[in-house]
């Protein structure tokens, strides 16, 4: 039979009823996949429950690690693992130790006396072997200890109730007591309807615990499984420091049944959230253990006691003779840019993407890396006009590094901030102001290297006061020489002479006290 679901429908296999769909769990002889394939234009979100082959007992199909498909059934994009299978898929074998469940008593049929709630819980427990929608504990990932929270979607759709809140709170407290990072493997439909407002208020508990953990200087990582919607996305997911998502996962505050009928389905996917700046990376399941291990390695690495050294100059050029020579060298398309400097500087680096406000800027590279075994954060302009989203992403990374006690490296290279109408609508001034503020407030040391063009305030926003270095093929100016000449009502031919008057060469910047020195080549 068919069950209405927004613009699409659910096909319910024999022996299932609407309540099975509503709780988000399949009976023991079925496995749930999402998405399968588009059944028709009228039902783009169809979900199919497939009967398990005779004699096989897994509650959820495990993926075949040698292909993009499970070992049986139809091709899928996302396979819903149980909470414990998700933990096992990313942790070192045999390292997981479960936290004891906090004691708590609930009245019959829950706080609202919702008829049949106890029976629904009992059926969910029988299906999944769990007594709540989350499993918590500690484990090693790539040899490094972390606290894990893993959602059991088969238990009432991974929904959050009071007892869920108890377990989440205990996990956060354990992470702070042991000074461990917290990794959440999320698969939830949101708050549990059968517990009403008391379920919804668990989001406040989670938010409070996240704030306390943030204040303790401990990193929080989230993996968005399928689905991650409602309050789970708005707290554990979007509130994490590093947000990773599995390909094809449904991700969004609005679940599939409460969206507008004409909503763009791509907006509610891991890929859509990545494009909008809300997810740092979409990571295939096979790569997830290694990616998490890299993040824990970097975030647990020693910190340097002072400012990090600036990168060495990569271009074999001498400081320019004139101001206009400085401009020409910096604008040379063949000179080294940010990516080359980052690759030469770090033995491992991990990218963070997005401003968490709906935007990304490919002209700003941000993240964390290892330099001689020590953790360093970075924000690097790539030679383009920096968008507001780029500034907000840089400010986000600087503040995260400051909270984690990790020194920062910034690479300055931009003709200036983007000044088109779209940039103004996106809040260019506010974004630049926020970047200035993030660097001014940082308690960790910040090192800056000017590697190309330093175009006015859009470049200065990323420059460390008192610890800025320059390469021989760079310049820094209050305004581009051509624009300065135009403002002074000089002909375009006067731009080179104006460049000399502005004193923008690397050696001029050192003499003026704007830069500490000119970096030499690699030795």
From TrEMBL:
InterPro entries: AcCoA_carboxyl_beta, Acetyl_CoA_COase_a_su, Acetyl_CoA_COase_Trfase_b_su, ClpP/crotonase-like_dom_sf, COA_CT_C, COA_CT_N. The keyword Methyltransferase does not apply. Its cofactor is Zn(2+). Signal peptide: none annotated. It is found in: Cytoplasm. Residues 307-523 form the CoA carboxyltransferase C-terminal domain. Its EC number is 2.1.3.15. It catalyses: N(6)-carboxybiotinyl-L-lysyl-[protein] + acetyl-CoA = N(6)-biotinyl-L-lysyl-[protein] + malonyl-CoA. Keywords: ATP-binding, Cytoplasm, Fatty acid biosynthesis, Fatty acid metabolism, Lipid biosynthesis, Lipid metabolism, Metal-binding, Nucleotide-binding, Transferase, Zinc, Zinc-finger. Residues 49-314 form the CoA carboxyltransferase N-terminal domain. It is an enzyme of class 2 (transferase). It comes from the Bacteria. Pathway: Lipid metabolism; malonyl-CoA biosynthesis; malonyl-CoA from acetyl-CoA: step 1/1. In the C-terminal section; belongs to the AccA family. Component of the acetyl coenzyme A carboxylase (ACC) complex. Biotin carboxylase (BC) catalyzes the carboxylation of biotin on its carrier protein (BCCP) and then the CO(2) group is transferred by the transcarboxylase to acetyl-CoA to form malonyl-CoA. Acetyl-CoA carboxylase is a heterotetramer composed of biotin carboxyl carrier protein (AccB), biotin carboxylase (AccC) and two subunits of ACCase subunit beta/alpha. This is Acetyl-coenzyme A carboxylase carboxyl transferase subunits beta/alpha. It comes from Streptomyces virginiae.
